Amino acid sequence: MSYQNNIKNFIKLARLKHSVKNLLIFLPIVYSGNFFSLDKLIDTVVAFVAFTLAASAVYAVNDIRDKNLDRKHPRKKFRPVAAGTISVTNAIIFAVLLFVTSVVILTASSIPLSSLFVLVGYVVVNLLYSVWFKNVPIVDVGIIALGFILRVFYGGEVIGVEISQWLAMVILAFSMYLGLGKRQGEIKSGSSHTRKVNQYYTKEFLDKNMFVFLALTIVFYALWTVEASREFEYLFWTLPLVIVIMMLYTFDVEKPGVEADPSSILFSDKILMSMVIFYIFSIIGIIYL
After folding, report:
1. pLDDT digits over 146-166, tens only?
2. Are 185 and 258 in contact (CB under 8 A)?
C-alpha cells in the first residue's frame, strides 16, 4: 500500500493533468494537413511525450521552490513536496530523471535536433521563471505566454513546418489572456498572499488587460483564418465557435472563488469541454474532408 501511495504521489508531483496544455504541440501537424501522415504523427506523439516529461520536471522544481508558500495555500498545501509525502531530495532526483529521459527520447528518435533546442529553451526559461521572473509583474505573465508559444514552435520543428505569424499571434494573445485570468482568479479567491507578484496587481488592471487580449485573440484568429482560407476554404466559419468558447471560458473565470487554472476549468466545465472537442473535430473535418 505504501508503494502504491508513493507512485500516486510522484504522479501527482508530475502534474499530468496539466499535460493538456502540451496538446498545442499538435497544432502544426493538424493545421498543415499532415495529421494522417503516419511518420510525422508518430514523431509528434513521441515529441509530445518527451515535452510532457520535461514540463513535469519543471513543475517538480517549481514545487520544491514554492513548498513553504504552498503550505499556506488551501489547495496547494496538499502537493506532495509541501505536504511532506515526497522529500526535497527525492523530488530533485525525480525532476532530473524526467528531464534526462525526455532528452534521451528526442535524441534517440528521428526527430530533428532543432526541436531539442526548443525543448531545452522551454526548460531554461521556466526555471528562470521559477527562480526569479515569477515575482516580476507583467514579465511573469509574459513568460507564461512564451511557454505556450514555444510549445507550438516545438511542434513545428518536429515535423519541419513553418508556423504562421498570425497563428503565433493568436497563441500569444490567448496565453496572455489565460495568464492574466489566472492572476485575477488568485486575487478573487483570496489566495493571492501565496504568490508575491500579486501584491503588484489590482483586479481593475487585470480586468482591463484580460479583455484587451480576449479581443486580440478573436481578431488575430479571424485574420489567421482569412490567411489560411486560401488553402482551407471554410476555416473562417469556425470563428463563431471560437467566440462562444472564449465566452464560456470567461464566464467560468468570472465565477466567485475560481482560481482560473486553465486545465481545471476545462475539465470541470463539461459544456466548455464539449465545445472544444466539437471545435477540434470541425477543424479536422474542414482540413481533411
Report:
1. 999 999 999 999 999 999 999
2. yes
pLDDT tens for each residue of 167-198? 999 999 999 999 998 888 888 776 656 678 88
Degrees, nearest 5: CA angle 140-133-68? 100
Residue 188, C-alpha cell as written in the block: 478573487
Q: Specify the CATH superfamily of domain 1-159.
A: UbiA prenyltransferase (1.10.357.140)
What CA–CA distance (Å, rounded) separates 25 from 44? 7
Domain segments of the chain: what residues?
1-159, 164-289
pLDDT value of position 2: 60
Compute the chain's Rg from CA coordinates: 19
Residue 107 to residues 94, 100, 115, 127, 263: CA-CA distances in angstroms? Answer: 20, 11, 10, 22, 30
